[in-house]
């Protein structure tokens, strides 16, 4: 199996089950125009996020790693009329693109981009003592995944789902001798999950338009 086949199959699924979408395509075009890296979730992965959040009945969604707001739009579409989303981004230029994209998606009133290092904006969220989140998508700097998992646990309520992107690292996640900071982050995340009685989790490998990767799905039980 080759990358070409994975892409052809992803394109087929997305064409049949998603179809043209001016808002999402416009968001990617705006991100491209601004020179942002093309590391957004694939369309069918974005739709998986939407389906998971909707199935959960999420009213409060937290995203760590906004980029141009592509995954944010998918998640925002799962929100009920009174729902809200907070997305955290370190790069002000990325946040600016995301804000314009969220505005065009009709989500400006319900989705808020907070600029800063996520460790700082997460601490601020905790200080604010806001309503807990029902869904968290972790997709920022990979070495910090263990820290983001701990914050996600603090900021969610029982029944919440936490999704962590990019956990396969080209297969190196299985290499206990790896010194790669992202691999160490993902392995430490798995150790924390395994030692945490409040959660149930699984990790799944994927192939597709973005290559070989995978995600971790964590349910907060109590
Ligand atoms: N979720 C997006 C892709 C995010 S890419 C999508 O699928 O559309 C990762 C993003 O995390 C980048 O925009 C990067 O600037 C941001 N990021 C990296 N380190 C960060 C940090 N320490 N705090 C907050 N955001 C960070
Ligand atoms: C990268 C980051 C991502 O979140 C992703 O899904 C793919 C690639 C990266 O930093 O290269
Ligand atoms: Mg990602």
Provide an overview of this structure:
The protein is α/β, with parallel strands linked by helices. The chain has helices at 3-17, 22-33, 43-56, 70-76, 92-104, 118-128, 145-155, 181-194, and strands spanning 60-64, 84-89, 111-115, 133-138, 156-165, 199-208, 211-220. Helix 6 runs parallel beside helix 7 (145-155). The structure holds S-adenosyl-L-homocysteine (SAH), 3,4-dihydroxybenzoic acid and magnesium ion (MG). S-adenosyl-L-homocysteine is lined by residues 39-41, 65-67, 70-71, 88-91, 94, 117-118, 139-141.
- Distance, first to last CA: 41 Å
Q: What is the helix content?
A: 40-55%
Poorly predicted segments: none
Main beta sheet strand tally, sense and closure? 7 strands, mixed
Mean pLDDT: 98
- What is the H/E order? HHHEHEHEHEHEHEE
- Structural class of the helices, strands and pairings? alpha/beta
Ions, cofactors and other bound molecules: S-adenosyl-L-homocysteine, 3,4-dihydroxybenzoic acid, magnesium ion
Task: Report the C-alpha radius of gyration, rounded.
Answer: 17 Å
Basic shape = globular
Give me the count of strands.
Answer: 7
Q: Oligomeric status of the shown chains?
A: single chain
Please give the count of helices.
8
Enumerate the strands of the largest sheet in spatial order, edge to edge or round the barrel. Answer: 3-2-1-4-5-7-6
- In terms of DSSP E residues, the strand content is 15-25%
């Amino acid at each position: 199996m080759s990358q070409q086949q994975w892409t052809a199959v992803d394109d087929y699924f997305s064409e049949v089950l998603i179809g043209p979408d001016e808002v999402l395509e416009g968001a990617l075009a705006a991100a491209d125009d601004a020179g942002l890296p093309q590391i957004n979730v694939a369309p069918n992965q974005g739709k998986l996020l939407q389906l998971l959040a909707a199935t959960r009945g999420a009213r409060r969604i937290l995203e760590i790693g906004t980029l141009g707001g592509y995954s944010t739009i998918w998640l925002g579409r799962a929100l009920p009329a009174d729902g809200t989303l907070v997305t955290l981004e370190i790069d002000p230029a990325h946040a600016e693109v995301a804000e314009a994209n969220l505005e065009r998606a009709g989500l400006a009133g319900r989705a808020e981009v907070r600029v800063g290092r996520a460790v700082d904006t997460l601490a601020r969220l905790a200080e604010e003592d806001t309503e807990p989140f029902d869904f968290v998508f972790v997709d920022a700097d990979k070495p910090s995944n263990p820290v983001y998992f701990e914050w996600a646990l603090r900021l969610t309520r029982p029944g919440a789902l936490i999704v962590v992107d990019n956990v396969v690292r080209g297969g190196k996640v299985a290499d206990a001798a790896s010194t790669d900071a992202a691999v160490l982050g993902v392995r430490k995340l798995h150790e924390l999950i395994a030692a945490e009685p409040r959660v149930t989790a699984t990790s799944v490998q994927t192939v597709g338009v973005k290559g070989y990767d995978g995600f971790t799905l964590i349910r907060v039980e109590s």
